Amino acid sequence: MPETVAVNDDYTKIVDTSDEWIRGRTGISERRVSNGEPVWYMSQKAAETAMARANVDAKDIDLVISTSVSPDYIYPSVSCVVQGKLGIGGNKTSKGAAAIDINCACAGFVYALDMAARYISTGYETILMLSGENVTKSVDYSDRSSCILFGDGAGACVIQGKEGLFGSFLASEGEGAKHIYARSHPVKNAFSPAPEASLYDGFEITEFGKMFLNGKEVYKFATRVMVEAVQKACENANITPDNLDLIIPHQANLRIMETAAQKLGQTMEKFYVNIERYGNTSSASIPICLHELAESGKLKRGSRICCVGFGAGLSYGAVVFDY
């Protein structure tokens, strides 16, 4: 996590808000924000910790999967940069490990975990998953409803195969893509007309790189699909939510998590929540939760876990597994 901490009172100097307003609507008290730490750097540090905890050498890793909505470069990929920095792979071939970046927004970790499981089933032995985010660089600090939500950070996991329960459910509702987005470069080259001549996509016209968030629509989407994703993933694993020991949701908003728990008929004691200290760190939020659980000794072998995420796209999904 970046060292710089932004508490709610810091935002009162930027927009018309208050600590009480932020905590009451989101559950957030503070968040970490990058003070120059790039995504590749935070991801590399998380990877080093994960490999040390797993007692896995960089040369033994077959594949790197990285998730981010806020990479440092349009290209190259974060996964390739970290692979090169750490010298990942090489035991099976004379070259470095394969490296893949995916952008499934805040559901990225869940999508990557499902992807890793499928690679494991085809013969890959050890996979490094990275989720690094510097979301605050795209935040619109004139929008008091969204700028207070986001923080930066990274998490990483080493994935290996074993016998045990596994089930997943992934889906998207692209018709809602217009509810949360940040634009990339406009169409512009030596032969193109003015950017205004680009095909209209139906999205609001926004500043390059800045986030647009329709909070009401995303809230309705999230409270509905969190429940569906958990139920479907459990169904695909031939269990019910009652059989879960722990649910680790994407940390977007405390009220979203509380509503989902109620609809699932589960208590909040089954949900792991750390949003009050980190805010919404997009795809990094679930692995940050996993790290805290591991560090505190609360992540027990044999625990039946569900990770559930949702975000821009609109994409969502859940993965159920025995740890």
Summarize the structure in words.
It is a single chain. The protein starts with a strand and ends with a strand. A hairpin with a 3-residue loop joins strand 11 and strand 12. The mean pLDDT is 94. It has ten helices and twelve strands. The protein is an alpha/beta fold and 323 residues long. The longest helix has 22 residues.
Summarize the structure.
This protein has 323 residues and is α/β, with parallel strands linked by helices. It has 10 helices and 12 strands. It has a 4-stranded mixed sheet, sandwiched between helices. It has a 4-stranded mixed sheet with strand order 7-12-11-10, sandwiched between helices. A two-stranded antiparallel sheet has the order 1-2.
List keywords for this structure.
alpha/beta, 32% helix, single chain, 4-stranded mixed beta sheet, 323 residues
Give the C-alpha Rg.
19 Å
Note the run of SSEs as H and E: EHHEHEHEHEHEEEEHEHHHEE
Please count the helical segments.
10
What share of the residues does DSSP label as strand, in percent?
A: 15-25%
| Strand order in the sheet with the most strands | 4-3-5-6
Enumerate the spans where pLDDT stays under 50 for 5 or more consecutive residues: none
Going by helix content, strand content and strand pairing, the class is: alpha/beta
The CA-CA distance between the termini, in Å, is: 24 Å
Mean pLDDT: 94
Q: Specify the helix fraction band.
A: 25-40%
> How many E-type strands?
12
Largest sheet, in brief, is: 4 strands, mixed
Which term fits the overall shape? globular
In terms of quaternary structure, the protein is single chain
